[in-house]
Amino acid sequence: MSDLQLEIKHLIIDALGLEDIAAEDIGADLALFGEGLGLDSVDALELGLALQKRFGIKIDADAKDTRSHFANVASLAAFVTSQQRA
Question: What is the pTM of this model?
Fold first, then answer.
């Protein structure tokens, strides 16, 4: 697991107030929504804002591929890396 993935896991826990979950409980490929971690659309909004603030990136909620970036921690880490390089 990369440092960025670990940082994103901690950000998810902190931003969404998931006190009963540890970073180790969130697999890099665990689905964040639905059957996986069970996040909802409000959580997605809060997480998006936290990511923008923490990493200084821009997230276009209306972009067609935004949903796929939020699929799991691994895809979020790849998205953050690509946005920071842009």
Answer: 0.93
pLDDT tens string 5-37:
999 999 999 999 999 999 999 999 999 999 999
The stretches of the chain forming alpha helices (DSSP H) are 3-16, 41-55, 66-69, 73-85
Find the CATH number of the domain harbouring 10. Answer: 1.10.1200.10
Q: State CA 38 to chain mean position distance.
A: 13
Q: How far apart are CA 77 and CA 52, in angstroms?
A: 13
3-state secondary structure of 39: strand
Q: Tell me how many domains the chain contains.
A: 1
Q: Domain range spanning residue 51?
A: 3-17+29-85
